Structure formats: C-alpha cells, structure tokens
Predict the structure of Bifunctional hydroxymethylpyrimidine kinase/phosphomethylpyrimidine kinase.
Amino acid sequence: MAAAPPRVLTVAGSDSGGGAGIQADLKTMLALGVHGMSVICAVTAQNSLGVQGYWELPPEAVEAQLDSVLDDIGAQAIKTGMLASSVLVETVAAKLAGRGIPVVVDPVGVSKHGDALLARDAVDAVRHKLLPVASLVTPNLWEVELLTGVRVESEADLPRAAEAVKAFGPQWVLIKGGHLPDRPVDLLYDGTDTFTFTAERHDNRHTHGTGCTLASAIASHLALGLALPEAVAASKEYVTGAIAAGFPLGAGIGPVDHAWRTRR
C-alpha cells in the first residue's frame, strides 16, 4: 500500500466555470502532488464572463465540513478563499485558530471580472478575526486598499502596504503586485525580512483563478515541507507557467492551465 501524500484543505467557494475557487484549488493540489480536500462555503453561478450570482451555505454546514475533515483526516496546510459573509469568516476563523496548522489566507473580495464576492460588512471580520490566524495572507492591490485604506500605485508603495496588512496580525504578508504599471512585483514580509518576486508580464488575458491558484500552490508547497519563502518562490514559478499556458474558454476571461507541466 502506498503512503498517503501530504493533505491540504481548501475552505472556499465553488466556481461553476471551473477556473477559480474550490475547483482551481483542487486542480492545483493534484498537479503539485498533495491530497486536496474541500470545505465549500458558497456556491457561485459563474462563467468566463463573470459571476451571475452566489449563495452562501449555512454556518453550521461549513462548521460540520471542517469538523468532518480535520477530526478524521487532518491536514498539513489549509487555504482559505471566498468566505462571503461576516458569519462565515468568524466561523472559519474560530475553527482554525490554535490548531497549529499553517493557514494561507487569500482574502477574496472580488472576482477577476470585478464582481463582489465578500459582503462589505465582512471586511472587519477578515481584519480582526481571520488575519490573526493566518500564517500568510495574499492580498492583491485592490484587497490591500479594501483592508487598510492604503492605495498602491507604484512598487515604492509595497513596503507601506505590507506594514499596514501585517498590523492585523498575520505571520507573513504577500502583497501581489501583478497590476503595477511598470512591472509585476510581489513583496513578501514578516515584520523583519523582505523578499521580492518579479515575473514577466504575459500578453494573455486568460488569467481567471490566478489568486486562488497561487494561494493553493503555497499551501501545497508548505505541506510538502518547504519553508515559507521557498514555498512562495516555487508557487510563483508554477503560477507563471500556468498563466503562460492559459487557454480560451467561453467568450470572456479563460482560466490558467493548472496541468501545464504535463502538456510540455
């Protein structure tokens, strides 16, 4: 009998189009050689053109899923994505606190198309309940402004943004600067050490699910035993390849190719 692979749990929303959310998370985990498990917090009606609607699950259903997985199978790392509402943010944060498992928080606020995926009244719960239990939080520039009020307009603004997010209590912060005007730069910060990651800007509009994919890849690499800076570097390499291989699907923004390494 083969040994069980490392286990990674995603706590997020379902994307019916398969490009982001739970679906992207599980594809990423499979591609990186870990066993993916899921707690679904919301169901979206979503395709390449946008999000047509979403429906939250009751908090007791989310809590039951978490108990079911963690009390029996366990996990070496956890990733959170779309949590939708204040009550779900608080439910998930309470369940993850104190478990001693690395938690990668993708503070999903909007979809790639600009559709809201987090209630406005839930932002405070993300700040004060979820971020303090995070081993790493991975906001993009819009999410930085939503959480802290800091507007990032150039690479020079990244350290100030990282400090502002770090003040809410996560161990590490990764500010994703993919939409900076000059070059894509991400900044990783733990209050003392700073690491920067740059990437080529691809002429490819098929980038749906990049944030979910990156956070899931980091959680997977942590479960595989990498230290956090190395996990981020390996995940950036994986996501960069997935973006370069992104393919058209539907009439709008297509997904990245999670299986790009098998197609080379």
User: Anything to note?
Assistant: The chain is about 35% helix and 20% strand. The longest helix spans residues 228-244.
